[in-house]
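Thread amino acids onto this structure.
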């Protein structure tokens, strides 16, 4: 197991290979199809700082945050996979979710020193490893708002890196 701490450096992201098993710790962002297009719009308008959101070296976990906990949603939904490029260019080093993503997205990750990691849908385990959570943008979206959570040892497998995919 490779221990990864956020923020993730460009070099650390580039060192990860498809199939690497990781334990992720630190602060990560959570968002899915309802909020990621709004976050991308803020990136494009250079307004993330107004929310105190800084993505450099960050991780985006494709999930909602609810009292039941967190668990991955499918990363290949158009609104989610469509956010990869904008968020990677803004400094996100790891996209965390589940499911196969397209080759065009896999190639784009390579160009932007980012990777895609697959996290098992084990909400109970993730709950024990989630240390804190706070809503940082779009609270009107409820559990689909943009959250920042602090985690310890989230297990994941690198699913796409260097133009290759586990699928």
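Threaded sequence (167 positions):
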């Amino acid at each position: 197991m490779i221990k990864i701490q956020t923020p993730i450096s460009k070099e650390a992201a580039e060192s990860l290979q498809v199939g690497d098993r990781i334990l992720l710790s630190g602060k990560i962002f959570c968002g899915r199809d309802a909020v990621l297009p709004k976050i991308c719009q803020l990136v494009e308008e250079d307004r993330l700082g107004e929310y105190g959101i800084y993505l450099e070296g960050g991780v985006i976990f494709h999930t909602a945050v609810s009292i039941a906990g967190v668990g991955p949603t499918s990363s290949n939904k158009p609104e989610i996979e469509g956010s990869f490029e904008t968020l990677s260019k803004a400094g996100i080093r790891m996209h965390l979710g589940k499911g196969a993503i397209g080759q065009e997205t896999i190639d784009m990750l390579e160009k932007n020193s980012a990777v895609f990691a697959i996290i098992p849908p084990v909400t109970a385990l993730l709950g024990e490893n989630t240390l804190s959570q706070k809503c940082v943008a779009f609270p009107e979206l409820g559990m689909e708002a943009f959250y920042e959570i602090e985690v310890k040892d989230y297990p994941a497998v690198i699913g796409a890196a260097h133009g290759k995919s586990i699928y």
